[in-house]
Amino acid sequence: MSPVELFSLPFMQRALIAALLTGLAAPAIGTFLVQRRLALMGDGIGHVAVTGVALGLLTNTSPVWTAVVVAVLGAVLIEIIRERGQTNGDVALALLFYGGLAGGIFLSGVDGQSAASLNRYLFGSLTTISADDVIVTMVLAIAVVGLCVGLAPQLFAVAQDQEFARVAGLQVRFYNVLVAVLAAVSVTVAMRTVGLLLVSALMVVPVATAQQLTRSFRATIVAAMALGTVASVGGLVVATFASYEVDVAPGPTIVLLALACYVIAWPIGIWSRHRARLREPFAEGQLPGHDACDEHPHTHGPTCGHLAVPHDDHVDYVHDGHRHAVHEGHYDEH
Amino acid sequence: MTENPPEPGVPAVSISNGSVALGGRPVLRGIDLEVGSGDFVALMGANGSGKSTLVRSLVGLRPLVAGEVRLFGTPLDEYDEWCRIGFVPQRATAAAGVPASVWEVVAAGRLTRRRLLRPLSRADRAAITDALEVVGLEHRRRDAVSNLSGGQQQRVLIARALAGEPELFFLDEPTAGVDLPNQQVLADTLRKLKDRGATIVLVAHELGPLAGLVDRAVVMRDGRIVYDGAPLQDHEVHQPWLGEPHSHHHHHPDRPGRGDHVPVVASPIDRPERR
User: Fold this and answer.
1) Contact A164 B117 (CB under 8 A)
2) So what's the pLDDT on residue A232?
3) What's the Cα-to-Cα distance from A188 to each of A252, A288, B130, rounded to whole Å?
């Protein structure tokens, strides 16, 4: 089967739509989680959602909706523990994570039949998505992206500084719970794509990649959503082509592709921050007196290759531990 | 700052017989304080004396166990004109887990006057630019806030409070850990606010360059007000007649004064008992 034929199949098109929307929604809410230093919250909700999926399989109801309900409950519980606890209550969160995962696997064992189906949710199964699933995914993903973008100023202020936000008259608790609920919804949106065990990767890795290169929140969230979409759709396409030869699951491919973007961006980020530090202007003022440097055969200029750093109203050229500033035909030590 | 002219005679902020308990143990007791419109009041005292707790209870971050706080004559519980209040919390940094530009942090202060799901208006943008100019950071608006020095970040937090064009400012230790040149810029900024007619309540361990601006000093010790009157020199705050042993050489800015009001008896998932 040629690639064109393959991508014109309905199940592939459903998979592409789901991948695209997941790639947009997960990093959008993930940015706010990372901003609040809750990068692992998505992981925790993912574990709790396992119980929801198992419950749906056990009771023969839609696993997506039971997962949404249980994940939202779990997210709100995590938020309550976080609000009450000190140092992010990470021990209490861990208790909840393990409870969720163990509960899900226990329930699927009770059912006896559903262990294989549970696997589809744990590791993702883009190509078995039904038309109904796609519609649910679309509605939820669009709601997540819409709220994240529409309420971005409020969510940003609350995540940046809760006390200031409260004194500014914002309903801090409402926004905290909203972030938790949106995170839970995006977990269930992403579970068919990358699976519950890898869901957090799509919420966090694109954000971590984006912030290597950005200086503002807006640029970070936009870049993270773009990177998430590229990784998500790209991972699906790569997995599809690879499956001509070997059995490759889309979920892990998507996550590995997102991580590959990070591996590329990281050294660039280190290099650009290093460069920015070197080019930061020197502190104002200089020592009293005048300290001309010794014989200096080299002529400094914009093209001489030495690092040029602004200092007061002139430029210091940096080389070999010296800061040389032009002064009446010679160089001063600054 | 003129659309809500202060009612004559009504104090900008007042607390009567206020008491605050942390973890069930009374910290502030019997606090009476009125700050008139246009006043510049410095709340002073040693670490753990309760000055930060007092400011936090004035803005509603700490519930009172007794007494009443009024903002512009309205009881705190019913107060909703938060655009008239500018709060500069005590923070070591303005940065969070994701990069944010100086402009974005300052723009967050404008939320007191913005409605949901509306883009920034021309007036919003003008107020944000004005706030950045007042603190002298207009040229760094695009820089990540985490790349700024501690003193510059403090100025960003003040600009954020300014962006909402409030008339009553609460500043919690804005000079803690800030170098002298930046303290001077802070003092210049606060002078501009004072000249515009703003009411300012400032928590400070030491006034430094701010000393010339203060109209009135309130000294706290062990959760009670021990002095309320003309401005004091920094060293006078710690005079024995104010009942305070000289302590400012033992200032630890990285561990801002947890007194032993609340003994540390806790497990990791208890509700934190903070100052």
Assistant:
1) no
2) 95
3) 17, 66, 44
The packing angle between helices A131-150 and A63-84, to 10°, is 30
Is A289 in the same domain as A144? no
Domains contained in chain B, CATH given: 13-94+167-250 (3.40.50.300)
Note whether residue A302 is domain-resident. Answer: yes
Tell me if A79 is assigned to some domain.
yes
Nearest beta carbon to residue B89 from set A156, A164, A220: A164
Please give the span between the terminal C-alpha atoms of chain B, in angstroms, as a whole number.
Answer: 33
Per the structure, how many domains does chain A have? Answer: 2
Which of B62, B98, B139 should be substituted to probe chain A, the one whose Cβ sees the most A Cβ atoms within 10 Å? B98
Between A192-206, B3-17, B124-138, the lowest mean confidence (pLDDT) is in: B3-17
DSSP conformational letter for A292? B
CA distances from A250 to A24, A198, A253, B273 (A): 17, 11, 5, 47
Q: Which residues of B touch A170 (CB under 8 A)?
A: 111
b/e per residue, B13-36, with b = 16+ CB within 10 A? bbbeebbbbbbeeebbbebebebb
- pLDDT tens across B113-165, in order? 998 888 999 999 999 999 999 999 999 999 999 888 888 899 999 999 999 99
Q: Where is average pLDDT lowest: A174-178, B22-26, B34-38, B76-80? A: B22-26
* CATH code of the domain in which A168 resides: 1.10.3470.10
Domain limit, last residue, from A197, A229, A261: A197
- List helix spans (H) across A151-288: 152-160, 162-167, 172-191, 199-210, 217-242, 250-279
- The ipTM is 0.86
Q: What is the pLDDT of residue B252?
A: 45
Task: Provide the 10 A C-beta neighbour count for residue A41.
Answer: 28
Of A137, A172, A197, the residue that ends a domain is A197
